[in-house]
Amino acid sequence: MEHRWIRWAPAVVVPVAIAAAVIVTPLAAGATDLPVKSPSDVLRLVAASDTRSFSGTVEQTSDLGLPSLPSTSSGSQDASAANALELALADHTAKVWVDGPTKVRVQVLDRLAERDAYRDGSDLWLYDSKGENVSHATLPAHEASTPTPDATSLTPSQLAQRFLDAVDPSTTVTLGDPVKVADRDAYDLVLTPKTDATLVGSVAIAVDGKTGIPLKVAVTAKGSSSPSFEAGFTAFSTDKPDSSVFSFTPPKGATVSEQKLPTREDAAAAKGTHPKPTVTGEGWSTIVSLPAGSAPASVADDPLFAQLTQPVDGGRALNASLLSVLITSDGRVLAGAVPVSALQAAANAPAQ
Asked: Quick check: 169 and 309 in contact, CB under 8 A?
């Protein structure tokens, strides 16, 4: 990718993608036959879940209030950026197969194409049927048995876990009425921020009554009556997927590119080249800031950046229903699940 895109991508794409990855049709209430539990009981049910193999179909929908992405040619760098955003934020149907931490397949189904990600032990494959492009990488021996961090990021279980890991005194945890998801009985665990300084109104997590796996996650913005982003299983099975599901052979005529993954030494060497973020606030009102120069002046000339942001005092801002990002005139980047005004106040606060 061009240097300018790499530099400002963390300013907009990464915070929005993170928001998409941790905030996800209202839960369907229905008659269930579940034992009575407290919110603490359900939290323990999730924590004790030991289901390692499952498969299913996930529906993802979002209404973050963002403008439509600009149309770009398929071979341009802006097209790559737009595709990344579209994958994170647009409505999608995905099929998911998981057999332990090192056998994972996610198949995103588009209208006229599909995108697949495979992990089978040390082999990683990415396939995009548009253009028949294939990327392959091999994990180093010392990492071949480690989980793939984002391999199941499209599943409600992974999305929910990010929220559950962050539950602290700034959150009220309650239970709604039991619900049905993918024809399974589930507890409706509701996380509500105690502060008014966040854009998030509530997070509803449907927890499978038998396995403890989160089946659906829906996040509603403050003042809204419907979720801004949600993902949930429409079909779910705990049967172990056949091993052939995780094997991939490039289609005839496809272009295969071998990718070299960074080693631990590479990662350590690169660590000092990236600007160190500053974190202010706490809980739901946390703001993450990157120093001046993190977003170069040339970012203003990028059509995708201009399409996604609007001018505000002090710079330009991306204002979504659940997330705000501010890029100041001196290249600082501030992001959080807070109003743009909160980012502006943080940008204008005296340095500590």
From this structure: no
User: What angle, rounded to 10 degrees, do the helices at 3-22 and 156-165 form?
Assistant: 90
Phi, psi of 324 (to 5 degrees): -125, 145
Structure tokens at 128: 């995009």
Report pLDDT digits (tens) over 258-313. Answer: 988 776 666 666 666 667 889 999 889 999 999 998 887 777 777 878 888 899 99
Torsion-angle region of residue 315: left (phi > 0), alpha (psi -120 to 50) or beta?
Answer: left
- The tokens describing 31, both together, are 């008659």
Strands (DSSP E) found in 63-196: 92-99, 103-109, 114-120, 123-128, 133-138, 171-175, 179-181, 184-193
C-alpha span between 155 and 146 (Å, rounded): 19
How far apart are the C-alpha atoms of 10 and 130, rounded to whole Å?
Answer: 26
**Residue 75 φ/ψ region, left for φ over 0, alpha for ψ in the -120 to 50 degree band, beta for the rest:** alpha
Q: Count how many Cα atoms sit within 13 Å of the Cα of residue 242 in the half-sphere of its side chain.
A: 2
Label residue 64 by pLDDT band (50, 70, 90). confident
Supply φ then ψ for residue 48, to 5 degrees.
-90, 0
Distance CA 244, CA 199 (A): 44
Q: What angle do CA 343, 347, 352 make, to 5 degrees?
A: 120
